[in-house]
UniProtKB/TrEMBL annotation:
Domain of life where this protein originates: Bacteria
Protein name per the record: Phage tail protein
InterPro entries recorded: GpX-like
Length: 69
């Protein structure tokens, strides 16, 4: 899906707005948009390619670390 950035957008904020999360999707979006990697804030109306809908099903593994025993 191709969208256009809004004012003060970054890739993480865009993913959260469209998918409700960025975990597991940010890496894919970075590969799809290498032209955005040098910009902390994406200029208004810059085209951004989002991952396909089936990537929403990607589960993010959560590792639990025990600090004290």
């Amino acid at each position: 899906m191709k969208i256009h950035a809004q004012q003060n957008d970054n890739l993480d904020a865009i993913l959260y707005r469209y998918f409700g999360r960025s975990e597991g999707l940010l890496e894919i979006a970075c590969e799809l948009n290498p032209h955005l990697m040098d910009k902390p804030v994406i200029p208004i109306r810059t085209p951004v390619i989002l991952p396909e809908a089936d990537t929403e099903k990607i589960s993010v593994a959560s590792d639990t670390i025990q600090l004290w025993s």
